[in-house]
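dumping this here before i forget
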Amino acid sequence: MRHPTRGGRAVAAAPTREACTTASPPPHRLRRTLSRARPWSVAATPRSRVLLLMAALLAVVALAGGCGGDSAATTGDQADRPRELSIFAAASLTEAFARIGDDFTAAHPDVEVTFNFAGSNDLVTQVRAGAPADVLATADTVTMDAAGDLVVDPRAFAANQLAIAVAPGNPKGITGLADLSRDDITLVLAAPEVPAGKYAVDVLSRAGVEVDPVSLEVTVKGVATKVALGEADAGLVFVTDIRAAAGDLDGVPIPAAENVTGLYAIAPVAASAHAEDAAAFVDFVLSPRGRRVLDDHGFLPAP
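structure:
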């Protein structure tokens, strides 16, 4: 609404002396002339002030209602948004847990599952530093034990063994652990701080084989990747890693007498902001449905 202003008033010229001596028009004509010359003014009528006040009040009410509506919409959007559940899991669980995450979300549409896959020891370090994790899954029980009171009621849920990863077709003709000490073989292992690295040390020790790896990777997936890319001739990885890289890697089995079986552990994180969802995810992994997914990816059942 445009309010009329006072600045547009027309001002008549000052009358001349002759005009002052001219006979005045009849009184009724003078009043009508002055009425026509007076500009319309807000201040001129009390009713105008009332109308303006009412308009201002309506504008304030409309503005307040609009803000309230936006606030309500924002609150509604937050209420409809899925709760985010953060799973910190060993790198060797990548493919299996990605599938379990999809299945869990399908059964719990109000929860969105996100993953952080890394070396088990790094995951514990991150949780100890305050990273917002809800569930921790490690590739061994020793690392889970080291988490201490950071987790609640850890449980073993799967097992795995090692195999020798080689390029497709095994061009170097590797048949066993003893071949890994050959001068013409470039070998990569996981770092000894990582479960796969600890298991590799145990396996080589059992076989009495000494090796000189060209690199120590921070995750077992790093070992598999280097062999798949041709940057190494062989590496010790989990059986499940070779299965996940079908077509990019072949596997040479390690005899049971020389191999080790590693247990995987899972637990809700004590500081989780979503304790019920975290417990539900752990239960899902341990359920027959979760067990089938792990079986499909080559994991052994926990004893």
